Amino acid sequence: MRRYLLNRLGQVVLTLIIYITLVYFLLQAMPGDITQMYLANPRIPQAAREELQKQLGLDQGVVMQYLNYLKNFFSGELGVSFSHYPRPVWDILMERLPRTFVLFLTAHVLSFYLGYLLGRIIAWRRGKVVDYAATVVGITFWTAFYPLLSLVLIWVFAYTLKLLPLNQFIEPRLWQGAPFPTNTVFGYMVYGGGAVAVGLFLVFYAFLRGLKRSRRNTARAWLSAFAIIAVALAVAWRTGLLVYIWDIASHMILPVCTLTLISFAGTMLLMRDSMLETVQEDYVMAARAKGLPDTIVRDRYAARTAMLPTVTSLVLSLASSMSGGLVTETMFSWPGLGQILFHSALANDYPLATGALAFTGVFLLIAHFVADILYAVLDPRITYAGQPAVEG
Amino acid sequence: MDTLLKLDDFTMHYRTKAGWVQAVDGVTLSLARGQALGLVGESGCGKTSVAMSIMKLLPYNSKVVRGRILFEDRDIYSMSDEEVRRMRWKGIAMIFQAAMNSLNPVYRVGNQIVEAIVTHEPETSEREARERVASLFELVGIPKERVDHYPHEYSGGMKQRAVIAMALACNPKLVIADEPTTALDVIVQDKILREIDQIRRKINMSMIYISHDVSVIAEVSDVVAVMYAGKLVEMGPADNVFKKPRHPYTCGLMMAYPSILGDKHELATIPGEPPNLLDPPAGCRFHPRCDRASVECREADPVWRAVAEGHYTACHNPVEITGTWSEAVKALNGGERLGASSNA
After folding, report:
1. Which of B56, B89, B230, B343 has the CB geometry, 3.0–4.6 Å to B25, for a possible disulfide?
2. Is pLDDT above 80 for B140?
3. Within 13 Å and on the Cβ side, how many CA atoms surround B183?
4. Domains of chain B as residue ranges with CATH
5. In chain A, which residues have pLDDT < 70?
6. CA–CA dist A75, B5 (Å, integer)
7. Residue B114: its pLDDT value, please?
């Protein structure tokens, strides 16, 4: 196992170098550089532009620039943005990351969970009304033109019904003179949310791990879960964070719902497909013969083995929640990573664009790595000891 | 005798694109407490369908056309889902044909058995259930420390034993063993069969063995039922059926298997193929393959009738064996028709 992990880690580093190389040269292949933005400006003479080029190091050869970049990258230095001069790239990324992360992580997790639950139900009730209804609705949203769908939802819920805030990720008037910067609040949301999630997991694991499901344990689990959430809310309220968290959360509802609606069908159909195979397995029939309740046969036998492929898709989508989505961020005026990537590429801001892409790449590689490990945890038949598991 | 299970003219069909497959047709049999029944027949004759019908585990495209199945005098097909769920494993347990695949690959074997116990006996604690699993493992001959292993870490024979342990977990009144040993080699097969038989006698459990292998059935059954093309053709005490078979199909089936202890004889195959159950032949379903078939056989369905004490057959021209079975076989190998002297 350790040898496998080390091997795999080596692969990750190698892939990363190749990836950064590709990204770097692709961006460099774009015509011109940032100084050309000043071509049409009569107040900046040719000499000044050349001086700027020299300052930014753009006069050196591409290969030289690349080697410099690589050296800096692996010493943790992403450089200074051209278009947001003189802010360091790392700074900009760190400013944008929490916003993107909170939004997309929520949406992906929600979409995955919804897809998983629905997929499980419709595979179990194949050919029934639920199956057709969920498939038709899911596919409809899946194929919907995303910008239009978001506009329609904004129009209905924010503009016409005025149930949800329109645009932006915060209400500026509320945040005037706020004791916290927005990113601090996002940070608390990430850490707090993570802590609550871990807490809930532990509680449910502790009470419902046993093979015997007693009503008392179920009640205990739910009570503890509510207690954890209540404590978290109380802490947020006492520290004065709650009102700001609520502000951000209410701005998140529309984009999260839109993202969930357009993407849950993917997981749902994957799960359905995978489970239609496992429901025919002999051990599912055996479980039924054992007189286990229907839901246990479905969840512990048919769905449990069927969820493996969906886990891959979840992990990969989590990784992409780091890079954000340009369309979502544009439609909902959400100042996240996707927008920064897009604008930096347009502006020939090599350090920022490369930095943003490299950043995403690192997360994607880590996610793959985690997916591999998760597989071994979920399926005991998979071993990474260097030889396949013995069958029979 | 105390009847545990009773099939009364049970008829079940499968709906397919080509039409209705008459998989089980008018099966009538009863099983007493503590009795072992052997159900024998070729592949596709409806043995497993009978087993699944008794467990009420039929696929969605099946239909019970006629008849009833009574377990402890209660009609399984008029029970509610919840009642059926409670009956399974506590009342009737099963050792599946594909024992290798009837364990969930991602759960520890012990847990799968504990799960069955605590589901049916809510008053049993998980620890008590674990202890029972350990003693069950001892009973079937798996080392106790294997309880917490995953199925893929077991050998084929161990999986088979684990599945048997699982079937016994809730002290069922009846265990249906559908080809319990087909996947194993002959030596292990024999050992496991004897073990099951011992356990059965010890705890006075009823058993239905299903197999295409006459020798397996002969060894462990009190009563034997022979099935052909969805119908029972002969049933009776094992000694009677195997020493003096009355139905030509039973004879054919026995001729097709070698006898290790008995005299050598040439193995004979039954000519022809089992009929297509979408459109089974009129009259006796065996008549196209039977060398004793008469006009009557082609036209009239033979009635199920007693030919001796507890021995039934459905045949217009039953075989009459006067001497021992091996003499009859010898005579046959000599070119004489089986039982030809006795019947006109």
Report:
1. B230
2. yes
3. 18
4. 3-221 (3.40.50.300), 243-333 (no CATH)
5. 210-213, 322-324, 384-392
6. 78
7. 93
* Distance, CA of A324 to CA of B85 (rounded, Å): 49
A174 with A243: CB under 8 angstroms?
A: yes
Residue A29, chain B, CB below 8 Å: the answer is no
Question: What is the rounded CA–CA span in Å between residue A51 and residue A299?
Answer: 67
Q: Which residue in B219, B225, B232, B174 sits closest to B192, CA to CA?
A: B219
pLDDT in tens, A355-378: 888 888 888 888 888 888 888 778
Q: Which residues pair with B71 in a beta bridge?
A: B5, B74
Q: 3-class SS at B151? A: helix
Contacts of A378 in chain B (CB under 8 A): 106
The dihedral over CA atoms of B137, B139, B140, B143, expressed in degrees to the nearest 10, equals: 40
β partners of residue B88: B92
- Structure confidence at residue A389 (pLDDT): 44
- ipTM for the complex shown: 0.85
Of A287, A291, A296, nearest to B90 by CB-CB distance is A291
Residue pair A199/A191 in contact by the 8 Å Cβ criterion? no
C-alpha A392/C-alpha B183 separation (Å) is 11
- CA–CA distance, B30 with B302 (Å, rounded to integer): 20
B169: Cα separation from own chain's centroid: 21
CA atoms within 13 A on the CB side of A133: 6
Partners of residue A392 in chain B, C-beta under 8 Å: 100, 155-156
Instruction: Collect all residues with Cβ–Cβ distance below 8 Å to A291 and sequence separation of at least 6.
Output: B85, B86, B87, B88, B89, B90, B116, B119, B120
SS3 of residue A102 by DSSP: helix
Q: Which domains does chain A have, with CATH numbers?
A: 92-336 (1.10.3720)
Quickly state the pLDDT bin for B340 (edges 50, 70, 90): very low
Q: Which residue has the tokens 């991602």?
A: B106
